[in-house]
Amino acid sequence: MSCLGGSFSFGSTQLCKGFALVLVFGHAVVQIFPSAVTYLALVPARTIPFAWNLLTAGYVEQAVVGAIVSALGLLFIGRLLEPIWGPKEFLKFIFVVNFLTYICAFVTAIALYYITKEENYLYAPISGFHGVLAGILVGIKQIFPDQELPLIPPLKIKAKWMPSLLLLPSIAVSFFVEGSASYLPTLIFGTYVGWIYLRYFQRKPETNIRGDPSDEFAFSSFFPQSMRPIIEPIASILDRIFCRRSRVPSEAKGYTLGAAPLPGSDPIEASRRRERGARALEERLASERLTASGAEDPSHEDAEERV
């Protein structure tokens, strides 16, 4: 399969373009009307009664660099997932990750205020799409874990390490850069919420089950091999909590039969989903390369439908 990085030169999907325009528009609004930040960004002290900022904060970029990075990141990375998940599921993923990320950021800010008594945690506006982008990288890790992406030519990195590569430097930089509280919580929570949703709650139409139980997508897979024996016992708590909630209803519908899982409910099916995703992406990229070169491509519509 060709490198995913090669697809960055091709057009994005309509949904991704629409969200990119929303991000640009949100940035323009807060630049033209600076007071709008108070109503659109997450200001924990004002979230009650302005509860809508839990929804709007994710689509408001206060800095021009953030607006550019978020818009381009969505156009280049989001387009890889939308054809595989479908527009409806992709849209649902964005809304769920965005809303839960800012719920977590709100609770964290309130807790930090009570611990430190620093009012800055209550009144500093928090916003940005980077939490959702972090969640999208988790989706890339799930679907294309072993695909190599160009980092800094000629360096390449496997897609499964992209979420960790985003988080670890961000955490390290936060010890030396003031104002890291404006982006670090949303990056962490966006990654974590995205993983929880994909791991336990995303419904697979082809199997009518939820989540991805494969070992390759376990929480410990975000960490180096040497750290996994420490992480796995802690992560097993989540399995006991969420598996009971998200899979018991499926069992009643035939998720398992006795102690044996039905076809499609084990890690083998998760691996097959990733293979189908890789094939679908390859067909899409092949058709786009032909279109970009001006060649006739009568099978373009069929490839799009299969994706």
From TrEMBL:
The chain crosses the membrane at residues 20-42, 62-81, 93-115, 183-201. It comes from the Eukaryota. The keyword Membrane applies. It is a multi-pass membrane protein. Residues 256-307 are annotated as: Disordered. One of its GO terms (cellular component) is Golgi apparatus. Residues 269-287, 297-307 have a biased composition (Basic and acidic residues). This is Rhomboid-like protein 19.
